[in-house]
Amino acid sequence: MSMIRDLRAVVRPSLRKRSASPYPPYNAYDPTRDPSASTAVVDCAVYRDGRRVKDDEECLTPREAMRRVREGGGFAWIGLHEPTEAEFAGIAAEFGLHPLAVEDAVHAHQRPKLERYDDTLFTVFKTIHYVEHAELTATSAVVETGEVMCFTGRDFVITVRHGGQGSLRNLRHRLESDPELLAKGPSAVLHAIADHVVDGYIAVADAVEIDIDQIETDVFSPPTKGSTRGADTGRIYQLKREVLEFKRAVTPLMRPLQLLSERPMRLVDPDIQKYFRDVADHLVRVQEQVVGFDELLNSILQANLAQATVAQNEDMRKITSWAAIIAVPTAVCGVYGMNFQYMPELEWKYGYPMVLTGIIGVCFAIHRTLKRNGWL
Description:
The longest helix has 67 residues, at 270-336. 57% of the residues lie in helices and 13% in strands. It has helices at residues 2-20, 62-72, 85-95, 99-107, 169-176, 179-182, 186-220, 233-250, 254-262, 270-336, 351-372; strands at 41-48, 51-52, 75-81, 113-117, 120-130, 143-152, 156-162.
């Protein structure tokens, strides 16, 4: 126990230093302006009783939004798109966000996860967008990934989006049209984001399944003239890489959704927690699909390689067969091309036509035998 106390004494000061140094107080940047007025803010509004405050038709600054929340209740929803450290520092200080979570939100490239810092939940979602293409090639992009980070507090929600896809504008409008759900508070927004992301997974899974079906049809259909069996290998491998990227977004999200749906949390309304179970069920379905896609592509790739190997073996059998046929005249001509003076049939009148007839007869017999056995 004394060793544990000594270890805590060493670790805790280092953690305090680390959490304090990267993000200085917001008034250290520019005392002449509101530091929370980030140019990365896409939308900022206050909601009371499930309705957007009428004065918030235009985008507020985060500081003004929180002032109105503290005065009149409700919660603030602030949406940002790819903020820089300087743009996010003021907002982080205003809402007391943990520096480690802020660092993850700014730099992105995180795995889906759920973390709790004091009275704030930090959730990371991977968004997936299907890239339309006329024909799948060995270099086609099938899916594009982005990220949505969500800070959920008692009276605020901050969403940070990375990537060109996954806009939450339509989601915000849809929630604003359902005041009864939005009245549940920030946890209702967190659920709506999770549901929106997983619904995107379902749509992408259905589109990827069509690509896999097309690849499967091409691999097992009879080859056209001039085509080779190994030509589909690049397309299969490319699609498998895209499915792997899809899998990296889906699989790590299982644990966060299980926690949100099963473990009681102060920041999650009990009524909303029931809805998280439905989202988790949908995610399980998508995960099973993606795992099935990966296994199916493995089988298709192995089948394609096996077909290519069989085609190569058939080509080698044909080459070997023709070599056996050509060996007959080569051997006979080689014997009679040695130019010895005393050789049988050299002076015979019918020697030449008989040799030719023999060569043709033997070659024909070999050709017929090989063809009957499927070598030609």
